[in-house]
Amino acid sequence: MAAYLVVDTLLHDPALYEEYKLQARPLAERFGGEYLARGGNMDIKESDLWHPTRVVLIKFPDAQSANRFYDSPEYQAILPIGRQSARRTVFVLEGM
User: Fold this and answer.
1) HSE on the CB side for 89, CA within 13 Å?
2) What pLDDT digit, counting tens, does each position of 31-45 carry?
3) Does pTM surpass 0.85?
4) Residue 73, number of CB atoms within 10 A of its CB
5) Where residue 96 falls among pLDDT bands split at 50, 70, 90?
6) Domains of the chain and any CATH numbers
């Protein structure tokens, strides 16, 4: 079953975040990730529980692949760049 890594990001250092993106994308792809959305325009219909700011959506073949990517030593090495450049909410969502 496919799984989606969902990231909502509030950038405070866009230049540094560019460095993170350059490293994160090929790594996610190595783990089977396919970027479906990356910070595009959103038309928010309801936001009682959550008001997203900049959403990235990456499809993986399954939750195990998404978690292997996130937990990998390679990703953990670049994760501080993402955290230093933005506030984030990240979760893995199982889907179809």
Assistant:
1) 8
2) 999 999 998 899 999
3) yes
4) 6
5) confident
6) 3-41+52-94 (3.30.70.100)
